[in-house]
Every structure is written in C-alpha cells, then in structure tokens.
Amino acid sequence: MTEQLHLQPRLQLLADLVPQDARLADIGTDHGYLPVYLLQKGRIASAIAADIGQAPLDHARRTAQQYGVGDGLRFLCCDGLRGIGPEDADTVVIAGMGGETIVHILSQAPWTKAGSTLLLLQPMTKQEDLRRWLNENGYAQSAERLVRDKDYLYPVFTVFGGEQPPLSVGEIYGGVDIEVDPLAGEYLDQRIRRLSQAEAGLLKGSGSENRQRAEELGKIRKILMERRADL
Ligand SMILES: C[S@@+](CC[C@H](N)C(=O)[O-])C[C@H]1O[C@@H](n2cnc3c(N)ncnc32)[C@H](O)[C@@H]1O
Predict the structure, then answer these.
(1) pLDDT in tens, 186-224
(2) In testing the pocket of ligand 1, which one of 8, 10, 30 has its CB within 8 Å of the most ligand atoms?
(3) Is residue 140 lining ligand 1, measured as CB closer than 6 Å?
(4) CATH code: domain of residue 80
(5) Residue 79: inside a domain, yes or no?
(6) Is there a domain that residue 181 lies in?
(7) How close is the Cα of 27 to the center of ligand 1, in Å?
(8) Is residue 114 part of a domain?
(9) What are the distances in angstroms from CA 27 to CA 43, 115, 126, 220?
C-alpha cells in the first residue's frame, strides 16, 4: 500500500486554502510535497511542479514516485512563472521564498492580475514589501491567515488581481484583516519585536539618516502596539 504524505503546518495551511479541483501551479516546489499531497488526496485536477533548480525538481520527482502520483504531475524547470499561463493553472502557490523573489516572479507574469487566478503567497521575509507592492500594482489581498510552524508564525496571503484602496501603514507592517485569526496577537507581538530590534540596530549606528529611519520605525511600532491593544 502506498504511504500517505503528511505535511508540516505551514504547508498544510496552504493545502487547505487550495480550492477543490484546482489546476495548481506550485512555483518553487522544491521537495514537491504540496502538489503530491493534494494529488494523493484527490483535491486537485492537475498540477505543475516548477522550480528554478534541477536538483529540487529531481527531489519533487522522487517524492511523486514515492507517494504514487508520478503521472499526475508536470515538472517544469523555469524561473518563476515563465512558460506557464492562465490556460495551465487557475491557482498559483508561491511559498517559502523571500518577499522580493515573489515580487520578481509576479512582475514577470502580469497575466496573474488580469483574470481570476487565485494566488496563495507565503513570504519568508520582507512581508511588508510584498503587501505594499501588491497594493500598488493591481492586486487585491482578500485575506491573510497565520500559521505556527517550528516556533515561528507565517502569514499566507490570499490574493486576486484587482484594485484595492491603499493599505494603511498598520496593514502593511501588521497584516490585512488578521484580527479574525487566533494568532493575530502573537503575530503583532512578533512584528513589534522585529521593529524594536531594527530601531535598536539603527540607533547603534551614527548619522542623522539612521536616527530618522529609527524614528520612522518607532512610529510604525506604536501603530502596531495600538492595533495589538485593540484586539
Ligand atoms: C525554501 S524552498 C520552498 C519550497 C516550498 N515551496 C515550501 O514552501 O516548502 C524555495 C524553492 O524556491 C526555488 N526558487 C527560488 N527562486 C525561484 C524562482 N525565481 N523561480 C522558481 N523557483 C525558485 C528554490 O530553488 C527552492 O527550491
């Protein structure tokens, strides 16, 4: 009997957010666990496992074989969404990468904001830069969910193409509509700690630019503290 793949909490949340019968593209698939799990569960109609590296794709192929879904997956070695279009996928997952890499990938694929493609984005870093970029470049964040994995909280953005009113500084740095999430308080605490550390680092340096930036971060930190207090 074929083994059942189990996912870590971060990937499980992403899997739970993929709609039934989706045509999935998993960009930066690495081990391939997400599409393999969804195929095993009969949750998706098709899957593309894409990665910029040949070694990660080989890993994904081995995962697919091990868990008996080798035929259901198309493997693509490419930078981001190059060679993938709306005819191939209605749901795109870009997870486990820096916010700047996710921006790079989406900016090369403007079709992702033209139709009804669902984007599930999970940045490891620069979350605020990604929120700001999406907001300023024709994407609308419809929800944000949080998950704890190995003592760290990760946000997962649900995004479609479309205009959205400008996000506030509190939303850019603290998340969009996270109040409904049971982990919202802890997430805001995490963000506040990060800002304090960045401020302290800047204040150790010399020069008025550093002081000015530290002051700006201090103002943002206070906004997040107010948001935290209102939960
Ligand atoms: C840390 S792994 C994340 C794997 C998986 N998505 C997850 O969330 O667990 C990042 C993967 O993204 C791939 N990657 C980085 N930049 C990429 C790009 N521009 N296009 C496609 N894949 C990329 C890397 O080769 C690596 O396999």
Answers:
(1) 999 999 999 999 999 999 988 899 999 999 999 999 999
(2) 30
(3) no
(4) 3.40.50.150
(5) yes
(6) no
(7) 7
(8) yes
(9) 18, 18, 18, 32
Count of structural domains within the chain: 2
Together in a domain, 112 and 29: yes
Kindly indicate the confidence band of residue 102, based on its pLDDT and cuts at 50, 70 and 90: very high
Q: Identify the three-state secondary structure at position 79.
A: coil
d(CA 148, CA 83): 33
Q: How far away, in angstroms, is 170 Cα from ligand 1 center? A: 29
- Do 95 and 207 lie in a common domain? no
- Six-digit token string for 49: 């496992």
For ligand 1, say whether the CB of 80 is within 6 Å of any of its atoms.
yes
Domain containing residue 21: 9-166
pTM: 0.97
What is the pairing mode between strands 152-161 and 118-125?
A: antiparallel
Residue whose token pair is 């209605």: 90
8 Å CB contact between 98 and 145: no
Residue 171 lies in a domain: no
Query: Which amino acid type is present at position 154?
Result: Y
